[in-house]
Design brief:
This protein is of the alpha/beta class. The protein has helices at about 10-25, 30-45, 45-60, 65-90, 95-100, 105-115, 130-135, 150-160, 175-185, 215-225, 260-275, and strands at about 100-105, 120, 145, 170, 190, 200-205, 210-215, 225-235, 240-245. The chain is built from 11 helices and 9 strands.
Length: about 300
């Protein structure tokens, strides 16, 4: 902990951290109730993100009525708020409380690791992602990628808290060989490829819409001879905790064709999102980057 972290410019960050820790210490049903109210308020007040979420949902589920789109977007905001507070538990709560609030079915992953096989957990941006990735590391050594936070104090807590149970963090810009070295030691990696990849990405359908996608999953799986296991994260109703499920591994993957491998990645994510769309982070500008000649996807309304 650097002495400079106690300068006045960091006081708002400290206040937010203390507030997060306090709220996460409350009984979880109480936190869930408060999250529903606060999440609904954020949904109504944060117009720009509300519109992004609703536009994403209308694009991905064109047959849905407007009422269902709005209800799903609102619920996503509520669950996202709950996930934020749950992060405080993952960061600070005693391990016994963490175990009581999370239900993880990782038998398949643990078996592969025990057999000395390599694995990649395909973990899309469900709202409960942060806590799930941390809590999975309670009983197994995991590796995850992350991006430096611009706020040095927040970055300190992100790194120290995400690794409180052990494991490894790989910054996105670090050499690929560091990640591969750990993967080849049968240390499972949480991989999050479902954000807009910008102009460097490959345009591949996602819910039937061309989306700039990261095309590295197939390449990494091939170089490390790793099995790719899709993972879904569900925040349960009424403060009953979080359920993390690992699904059947991708079959015949990778194929060695970047487009087909990325398409299969996106289709696996789609399949999980369709099962519980309210759990997904719809407020992200997933379709921001468009193919040459296409007009902007997100327009101010």
């Amino acid at each position: 902990m650097k002495a400079s972290f106690f300068l006045p410019k960091y006081w708002p960050t400290w206040f937010g951290l203390f507030l997060l820790r306090f709220i996460s210490s409350l009984p979880w049903p109480v936190v869930a109730f408060l999250s529903d109210m606060l999440g609904a308020l954020i949904y109504y007040l944060y117009k720009s993100r509300r519109q992004i979420a609703e536009q994403n949902l209308a694009t991905c589920f064109p047959d849905w009525p407007s009422s269902k789109i709005k209800a799903t977007a609102k619920r996503s905001f509520q669950l996202g708020t709950q996930a934020l507070f749950f992060t405080g538990i993952a960061w600070w709560a005693p391990v016994e409380r963490c175990k009581r609030l999370v239900d993880i079915d990782a038998k398949m992953l643990d078996q592969l690791t025990a057999e000395g096989k390599n694995s990649i957990v395909l973990m899309p941006h469900f709202v409960g992602l942060e806590m799930a990735a941390i809590l999975m590391s309670i009983e197994r050594t995991m590796m995850a990628m992350f991006q430096y936070a611009k706020n040095p104090l927040l970055h300190h807590f992100v790194v120290t808290r995400r690794t409180r149970f052990g494991g490894y963090l790989i910054e996105r810009k670090e050499p690929l060989r560091k990640m591969l070295k750990l993967l080849r030691k049968s240390i499972p990696m949480c991989y999050l490829p479902d954000q807009d990849a910008g102009r460097k990405g490959m345009f591949v359908p996602f819910f039937g819409v061309q989306a700039s996608s990261f095309d590295m999953l197939g390449k990494i799986a091939k170089m490390s001879n790793a099995t790719v296991i899709p993972c879904s994260i569900e925040i349960l109703e009424k403060g009953k905790g979080v359920r993390v499920r690992l699904h059947e591994p991708l079959v015949d993957y990778p194929l060695g064709d970047d487009f087909q491998d990325t398409l299969k990645q996106n289709q696996a994510i789609e399949a999980m999102v369709r099962l519980m769309p309210e759990q997904y982070l719809w407020a992200h500008k997933r379709f921001k980057t468009r193919p040459e000649g296409e007009e902007k996807f997100y327009k101010k309304r």
